[in-house]
Each structure stands twice: as C-alpha cells, then as structure tokens.
Design brief:
Largest sheet: 7 strands, mixed
Shape: globular
Number of helices: 8
Number of strands: 11
Number of domains: 1
Radius of gyration: 21 Å
Order of helices and strands: HHEEEEHEHHHEHEEEEEH
Distance between the termini: 68 Å
Length: 265
Amino acid sequence: MREVNSPERPGEPGSGSDSHTLAGKVASWLSTQGYPLEMRVAAAMRQGGLGVRQSVHYSDAESAKSREADVVGTTVDRPGLAMALACFVVECKAASKPWVLFTSPHTLAGYNRLFAFGVTNEAVKAGFDHPAQWAEELEWFKKDGPVGYNLQEAFADGSDRAYGAATSVVKAAMALVQPREGEWQPPIRLAFPAIVVDAPLFECSLDDEGKPRLVEIALGWLFCDVCMPGYIPTCIRIVGRRGLAAYMSEVAEVRSKLFGLLGKA
C-alpha cells in the first residue's frame, strides 16, 4: 500500500496531469458512444412526468437471449390501481453521419392504423372499436403524411445500424407488452418504439418531376415491416438531432388522451 504522503511518480495513476489526460481520453470516447444521448433522453422523459428506467433488459422473442433497451418511459392510467400501461421505448444512436428516411405517401395504404399506432397486447385489440375517435384525437394514430419504408445511415461503412436499431426497439416493445411470469401487470398494455439519433435526419422522397428530394426533418415515421414470430408490423418514431423536444410534446399528448380513449373502448 502506498504511503499517504509519498510523492506521485510521473505517469502513475492518480497524478494530476495523468488523471487529466485520462479524463480527456474517456470524454473523447464517451462522445462517440450513445450514453450521453441516453442520459439526455431519460432526463427529458423524467421532466415530462414519465417513470423512467435505463438499460432495461428483456428476453428476445427470437433467440430467448437477454437483450437491452436503452431507455423506457412508462405511464399508467391510475397510480396504485393501474388498468392500463403505456411504454415509450427508445433506442439511442450516437452518430457522426446523417441518417436518411425514405418516405412515400403510400407506405401505409390499406394498413390497419391500430397496428401502425404501436405494439399492443390482445386486450387492446379485442376492445378496440372506435377508430374514427382515435384518429380525431390522436395525431400519432392518423399518420396521414408520408411514412418511411426504409431508414439508412448515410456514408455507412457497410454495417446496417438502422436495421439493427429498428429490430431491437420493436423486440423490446413486444417484450414489454407480454405477460411476465410471477409478475402482475395492468391488463391493457401498449408500447411505442422510437429511435433517437444524435445526428441530422433527412427525408428523401420523389418530387413532382420524379427526382429525389432531400429535406432535413426533426421527426419522421418508419414502418418497420420485419419478419419476426408474433410481430405485427408497426411504426417507429424517428427523432433527429433537433427533434427531442417535439417528440416529448407528442408523448405528453399521447399520455393525456390515450387512457381516456381506452376507457371508451
């Protein structure tokens, strides 16, 4: 054990200059990871009145392995005697490159808006019979504008981070609405997946002349039509670097109106 008053040698862990250098290296590494973004998203959710958990583990329905969701915000209809639970599940991605959402006004043509709304358990599907009222009161339910059918990281090196993020967040949403053995849960459960990217988000669509048109956006929708057992394709909210505050405003609207609509179902 080192003596308390012994001088520190150059390069020895704990020396002032070395400690400062190490902290700088850790800070540089941290800036390339998703952790600061996760912390900001969690803080925004707490400020918005949600119950928040970070690094939430769930069982992957495909592999039965334990996986991790970055941030989950939850809200119930009645604290202490909840009959309905809504989860806002977020996958956070630090990125130095822009992301591109390819959209079309026809992506959801003929598709059931309840399925596009979010991941739900059977109780929601069985009791749902007022689509017009939901569409009137919930912007998230309508999805009348262009919806994405593909999401890509621009200038990518070959890895498909967007696909990985999409499949991860819908798997987490699926797990959260399923019953867990030995644990009581509200009978009505919904989960809304989102990907938050700490980078510019562009929408790519065709203009009137049939040419690609790029516009930077704060928020977008991605229809995640992947094949997984038990999964009914739904939409993921895509949040760009300028969209977190707007996303939280939308979450607040869903919180304030959803449970009333469920009570009328």
